[in-house]
Structure formats: C-alpha cells, structure tokens
Amino acid sequence: MAKRICEIAVTGPAGSGKSVLLERVVQNPQIPGWRILRSSEIATPVIMGGLKDIMELAQSNPAAFYQIQRAIFVLQVSWRKELIEIARHAPEANCLILHDRGFMDQLLYITPAEFRRIRLEAGKTLYDTRDSYDAVLFLRSAASAGKELYTQENNPARRESAEDSLAQERPLLAAWTGHPHLHIIPSYPSLEKKLDRFRDAIAHVLSETEIERKFSVKPDPAILSGAAFQDSVASDIEQRYLKKDADDNRPRIRKEWQDDSISCRRTHKKRVNKTSTLERIEIEYSISPETYEHLATFQEADTLAIRKKRHYFVFGNQYFSLDVFLEPKKPFWLLEVELMCKDDPVELPPFLKIEKEVTEDSAYSNREISSKK
User: Fold this and answer.
1) What is the DSSP string of 50-117?
2) Residues β-bridged to residue 8
3) By C-alpha distance, which of 76, 187, 65, 209 is closest to 130?
4) Would you state the pLDDT for residue 266?
5) Listed residue (353, 357, 358) closest to 368, CA to CA
6) Based on C-alpha coordinates, what's the Rg of the chain?
7) Is pLDDT of 149 > 60?
8) pTM for the structure as a whole
9) Which DSSP letter does residue 361 get?
10) What's the confidence (pLDDT) of residue 153?
11) Phi, psi (degrees; rounded to nearest 5) at 336
12) In 161-265, where does DSSP find H-type helix?
C-alpha cells in the first residue's frame, strides 16, 4: 500500500486555542499507524526574534512591512516543502502534517491584491496556497464562548485583545472559504470539549469518509448578490463519470477553477452502508489538467459532462456548498453540507428556499443528473 501523507491546515483567530490543542494532539496522538509532524507558525519566531514591533511597522513603513510579509511567505513555502520531504522518509506507513496556520492567514495583515502579488512572484496559484491542503480546520475564538475565556498568556507574541480576536474571525474565514473541505470547530466553556471535537475532525479527515447531507433549493438568483452571500466564494466546476474500473467502481473526475487556479481530482466513492448514501468512503487524489483531459476520453457513454457554478459559504458553524446547474440545466439548486459525525445536527440557512432533503434520493445524485436518460 502506498504511503499516505495528509496535510491539515489548522487556523483560527488569536486566542482560539490553536497552539494548545496542537500540542495536546502531538503529545498524545491517539491515531494508530500515523506519525504526526507539527509545522510551527512561521511568523512567531520572526516576531519574537526581534520584530515585536511588526504591527507598528505596518503603519509607519508599509513598504518594509510588505517585504517582511513576502519573506514570511517564502519561508513558509520552503518549510512546507522540506516537511513533506521529512514525511516521505518517516518510517511509519502514514504521516499527518498539522500546519499551525497556512498561507491564507496572511490575508489578516495584507490586502488580497498584495497577497496575490506575493504568491504570483513565488510562482504559486490559489490552489497551491489554499486548496492543496487535504483539509482546513478553523477554530473559533475562545472569546466566542465568553470573553473571560480568552487569554494572552500562552503566546508571548500575541498582542490582540478579546475584541480583536472576535473581529479576526470573519476575514479569516473568508480567506479560507472556497477550500473544498473546511471544518469549523466551535468554542466551548470547556477546552476539553473543544479538544474532543478537534480530535474528531482529524479522525474524520484521516478516515477518508464523506458524511454529506443534501437539500433541494428553489432557485432565487437575486439572493446570490445579496448580503447573505457577501463572503461567499464561487467557482466553476466540470465533472464527468468514467466507465467502471476493474473493481466495479465508477470513478468521477472533476475540474474546478477560480481566479488563476485550476484543480483537477479523480474520486472513487463507496457506500459504508448499502442502504444509505449518507456515509461513503471517498478516495480522492489530485491529477493534472492534462490527465483530466485524457481521462475525459473514457467518459461513460450514457452520461453528459456536468457544468455548474458552486457557491461556498459559512452559516454559523457550518460550511455549505450551493450548486447551480448550468449544463444540463435543472429546475432546482443543490445545497450540500459535509459533517464530521453522522449525528451532527444541521441548521439550514433561513435565507434559502429549502424544498426538501434529498440525501437518499438518487434522482438528485450527480451521477443521475449526468445521465442522458
């Protein structure tokens, strides 16, 4: 069996408990068969090493601050590359890399235009800096469960107040919105409860299990330009179903693009329970655009290519995707939410006109939508 290297970006505002939770997981992994490597936050040693006035510099000398941010980005690229190389040579069969923050976190400190310029100068696409992680775990601020729970004591580089921490949540979530697998970890009065949820999220990602509920939505194009979708991210998707393979699986290939970024994936899905589609094993891996075009020639004969606009958005502590079908056109939209546990409750967005749940209705499966029948 090929070695698995899984990368998870762990992010959140100041005071979200990120460093403490990462330390607890690394010290007591509870994940048999996996070695865990923790990637430290790049900016902290830079700040503590002599740049404690970095935020003052942002105001007094923006040009110098930009160059520092550019250098931090380059350091992060190099550190990630070498950490993956270390993971390849680790003796365990599988290796999990937990990144203490990821590239998109820099959008808290520089503008989108500045970040785009930095990544393009480094030869990186949006996919490289956001979507190339296997999953993103976003930790809510401890202050969201009570300002008295917020502390600065466990990070000497932290300057933010509880109010600052809460203010960081929205722009940071917006920076990561668009990643296909974003999970939000709420804050609780008890850190142990947050740790349990954090462990559940990691276990879910490593299990390669997809737990997804689906709902049909009455189309309302005006809502997509309204306040409810202000922080949403839209991407274009084309997906095709291939002929059955030797194991009687019907693979799917998908091409998704946004801005200057194109990501292509090949996916195999298998039901965990033969009587339900709620929970499935999902084996997914990246392929090149050239491989996508080659595999497209093996498309199943009785199917059409699906083309749709996908809108990613956050509502509460849930991450949704809303699909608007362009080809073939459909009289409904499809709302999907990925869960970490099959018993997790779902709070549906009140601003959408939900018609019914269609999780178990094969007529609303993408495979059936692609059918020429």
Assistant:
1) T-TTHHHHHHH-HHHHHHHHHHHHHHHHHHHHHHHHHHHHSSSSEEEEEEES-GGGGGGTS-HHHHHH
2) 98, 135
3) 76
4) 95
5) 358
6) 21
7) no
8) 0.92
9) -
10) 58
11) -130, 145
12) 162-176, 191-207
